[in-house]
């Protein structure tokens, strides 16, 4: 069964950086609207910071010299204040949130989090996708659903009010040279293709919700109708 | 090197076990505030206060000394660059700094390691520093004892979930795999374990 997650339960994992990028972004946005959650996370981060005491280790003296030389030639950002630890540059955000509505415009360069790259996509498309993804993650009714699949995990952030979702494939066994993974939204009995990827990792913006979501293995490039049985599943009910 | 300031008042009080070092909090916060205004001398002082914990934390997660040094350098320069973003109403300067350090170490380990070599990361999750250069000042020793005592007060599952995540750089999914425990349980143990640690340490800000 898919696991529906109460986002509050992630506070500890979030404070320990034990969440993936997508969950972190969803939680960051949740914190903006939930004062008590923000306070709890701040306290848990203070607590985690104490864990550094037992591993303190004097760095080589050359590090001090290198750092001081480094800052002498580094201009400071004059940005407004943000949430503690949100020190990402705009370019990093683009790289992290480079998305595609369909197909494998976004592929993982490796299986790990933080290695997303944008392939063959214009910057404006990326920006548009970023805004759409942000809107889903920021939605007050956003819900996180995750399920193990094919050696990895599939995570969905679903927002009924925006009629959209973001799907994350993380660390699935690659489909093989002659196969692709294909994502489907099931609408009134018919399956609509949401995206195709040849990698076991990737991100997809789903522009309209149906009753259920599923993933299948298909011949390379995808199919018009899903080949059953579905890998997720049979499906994640929305 | 990291923390040369004597704190005799704290050493002499019985309450120190539950009181988290308010003096240093003020110092690091004040220093970071000056850093945000471009004060390079304040930055050098701040470096001396936090560098052993920044480097030690990164080294614990990454293990490789050369890589740890490189990431620690990036982190310290990032702290300089983004100091104006620190907001003292939302937490302490040290928590802000170690949050950045931990995040960068985890980013590095996840992008390069891609979930492989889990045995190594289990080994890396112990709460003790096996290296020779452990920082040994009186204050550091007391804080280390406090952390160990509070970790000992957790259930085994709480402690393992927290240390595998924080010192091992594992995601909660990886922790669940490593411990053979259900995902919701691991998330819950991370949260309630940290809350128990928080209460044990008397953390507030």
Could you give a quick summary of the protein structure above?
Chain A has 238 residues and is an alpha+beta fold. Chain A contains six helices and eleven strands. Chain B has ten helices and no strands.
SSE layout:
The complex is a heterodimer of chains A (238) and B (205).
Chain A: E1 3-5, H1 11-15, H2 21-33, H3 35-50, H4 61-72, H5 90-97, E2 106-108, E3 116-118, H6 123-138, E4 143-149, E5 152-159, E6 164-170, E7 179-187, E8 190-197, E9 202-206, E10 212-219, E11 236-237
Antiparallel strand pairs in A: 1-4, 2-3, 4-5, 5-6, 6-9, 7-8, 7-10, 10-11
Helix pairs in contact in A: 2-3
Chain B: H1 8-12, H2 22-36, H3 40-62, H4 65-82, H5 93-113, H6 118-123, H7 138-152, H8 156-166, H9 172-179, H10 183-201
Describe this structure in words.
The complex is a heterodimer of chains A (238) and B (205). Chain A has 238 residues and is an alpha+beta fold. Helix content of chain A is 29%, strand content 26%. Chain A is built from six helices and eleven strands. Chain A has helices spanning 11-15, 21-33, 35-50, 61-72, 90-97, 123-138; strands at 3-5, 106-108, 116-118, 143-149, 152-159, 164-170, 179-187, 190-197, 202-206, 212-219, 236-237. By secondary structure, chain B is mainly α. In chain B, 69% of the residues lie in helices and 0% in strands. Chain B has helices spanning 8-12, 22-36, 40-62, 65-82, 93-113, 118-123, 138-152, 156-166, 172-179, 183-201. The longest helix of chain B has 23 residues, at 40-62. The chains are: A alpha+beta (238), B mainly alpha (205). The interface between A and B is large, with 64 and 95 residues.
State the oligomer: heterodimer
Roughly what percent helix of chain B? 55-70%
Number of strands of chain A: 11
Gyration radius over CA of chain B: 17 Å
Q: How can the largest sheet of chain B be summarized?
A: none
Assign a percent range to the helix content of chain A: 25-40%
The overall pLDDT average of chain A reads: 72
